[in-house]
Amino acid sequence: MPAPDLQLLIDAALEAGKIATRFSGTTAQRWDKPDGAGPVTEADLAVNAMLEQMLPAARPGYGWLSEETEDSADRLSKDRVFIIDPIDGTRSFAEGSRTWAHSLAIAEQGEVTAAVIYLPLRNLLYAAAKGQGATLNTEKIRVSELGVLESAEVLAAKPNMQPQHWRQGQVPEFKRIYRPSLAYRMALVAQGRFDGMMTLRSSWEWDIAAGDLIIREALGRCSDRAGLPLRFNNAIPRLNGVIAAGSGVYGLLSEQLEPESPGIAP
């Protein structure tokens, strides 16, 4: 069942890359969304328009959830749903950086079953189907097996290191590194390039869905900040943060985190 869906997502991601790279990020038209929801560019909209035409046409029974499409409750009645971020890392795209990605996933009854994260300017295509492992450019990948937190390299934004996020206010020691695209951070953990990642704010499903499956199929662990499995296609498509790593670093991080967010950290 997942294999045909995965190939569909791969084909769609490659086409998305062709469209997005026709635009120059620094000269593409850009708008700010209402309520401080961040920027959107003409490239985001062009990619979204193509995906919204291509994917539902290929799977007419599937629901649709995308950052750049007005949400509809219709998806809640569907067993399977596309969860799409046309360009994850729009600010990076607009600045002319190469660290933005297309993030495409399919969830069935709340669980992601096929996923792709594609960085066209870096020629990196991460993919996974449930029960079939994870790949980078068709080569199998797996997470880091490190089990010592002090030696770990963890992808996280600086506000996540504030004491209120940690039990007894004790911030653990590890090397913090940052990449702007949340999807790319998750893919790098799946690849074993970094030992873990976390984001402690309430996070949109489309930023996380593809990375969740790719990490789990790379033999890693992925959950919300309270340690609960991630479930998708929620009525309000937000999750209580994300922690992802190999089993050793995951356990060390999760046991020291406060399970509920005291505020917002990017």
TrEMBL record:
GO terms for molecular function: inositol monophosphate 1-phosphatase activity; metal ion binding. Signal peptide: none annotated. Transmembrane segments: none annotated. Its cofactor is Mg(2+). Its EC number is 3.1.3.25. It comes from the Bacteria. GO terms for biological process: inositol metabolic process; signal transduction. InterPro entries: Inositol_monophosphatase-like (IPR000760). Keywords: Hydrolase, Magnesium, Metal-binding. Mg(2+) binds at residues 67, 85, 87-88, 207. Belongs to the inositol monophosphatase superfamily. PANTHER family: INOSITOL MONOPHOSPHATASE, INOSITOL-1-MONOPHOSPHATASE-RELATED. This is Inositol-1-monophosphatase. It comes from Ruegeria atlantica.
